[in-house]
Input
Amino acid sequence: MEPTTFVLFGATGDLAKRKIYPALYNLFIDQKLPPTFALVGLGRRELTDESFQANVEQALRHFSRREATNSALNKDFLRSFRYSVLDIGRKEDYVKLLKRIEQREKELCISPNRLFYLSVGPEFFETIAAGIEESGLGSTSGWKRLVIEKPFGHDLHSARSLNRKLSKAFAEHEIFRIDHYLGKPMVQKLEILQQNPALHALWTNHYIANVQITANETVGVEERAGYYDHVGAIRDMFQNHMLQLLMMLTSHLPNNSNSEMVRFKKKMVMESLEPLQKKEVSASVIRGQYNAGTVQGKPVIGYRSESGVSSTSMNDTFIAARLKIDNFFWRGVPFYIRTGKRMKEKSTRIVIEFKEPLKMSSQANDDKKVPNLLVFEISPNEGITLQLNTRDPQHKGEFKPLQIDFHESRDDVPEAYENLIYDAWHGDPTFFAHWDEVELSWQWVEPILEAFEENLVPLHLYEAGTYGPAESDALLAEDGYHWWFDA
Ligand code: BG6
Output
């Protein structure tokens, strides 16, 4: 790994404390950081380097998946951290920052490779990118990269405009758009697993009846009403995480695919996704909003009673949709995608339901027959289960599904941010969203956004602590299917 200066905008913020510092610390423990690196944290508050380091240490003690021990912390890790005050709108501050970074590069004798990480609200992206460009921070003889978090735009138009502005300061290959679902270890495994010839052969409409992608959460809007009430599940989860899961699953990667191929194939999936017409959205998309209920034994209030949410809000906290990919591999296979807040349980999973080649209708217990299923558990547990329909010779050949299970122990699993920061540092863009994917995703959801806006799609209230509105079940029932594993 090359010596680099990690320039962190938003160094005193929540994301930095909860995710970025713990990820860096765990990479350090695993010896995945270069022996010499510099981190310059930036924020509005006045802080000395020492108090910044103390804050980072405290964050690690709270949020690191591995215990933050004194010996590890005091080694080169915290010593690499420096802090500078920066007012995002003040040009002089960027010039001062450049001086500080050049000084650090000299002190540590490291090449001027600079990773700019924007852990700040999207409203600051453009100003920071311009500040980096105009001050000369970006004119380095080493490499430069920009890491940004979602949301990337609010709709197609704003996403395009943001991208145009960022492109003035950074080339596409220098921009690393984080979608943290792409950092989840099981999602990364999908890239390789679908290249495995055993699965590759099955990965078509020949064998697959339908695919179900679920990301259910038990939490509600939390303290984020100001943001969430303007975006809803469609922008917060669907346009990015859910469509990324779809792309990762269906891109039909040839053996030995490199990052260019992965991104090319993902783009092809998005191009083949059958577009929805605004007037037809309600036939394929269910929108819901949680009402009061009980989640995991605790009573919770309805969305419209949450602090910061309007009592007449029409915002979606649940989406279920039926999508179709019109290409050689997937024509005719429905993809059901759903995501919601205040659901019965936290679970992100993909279920692949195979077609039923075994004809066993002469058997007495035909009704017990279940299709073969392949299940990818993404979170909170990591695992893969293959459920095979078979007969039990000891019980007169009755149907008995057989399960082949693999589960990862949670302690061994690196957090999404560890994988992503490591890759950005290495310059590996495989698990970052390319602009083409982002643009095509916004393009695909645009008719849904408009249909919601114009109230062409009913808003179904669902009881908190359930699996969403009954209409979501009806969507699958229309095609003769049901959601798997809803208890
Ligand atoms: C974020 C959304 O991107 O993902 C949150 O903004 C959501 O609303 C979160 O809670 C879910 O992530 P995870 O990793 O817990 O499934």
Residues 215, 217, 236, 348, 379 surround 6-O-phosphono-beta-D-glucopyranose (CB under 6 Å). Residues 4-149 form a domain with the Rossmann fold fold (CATH 3.40.50.720).
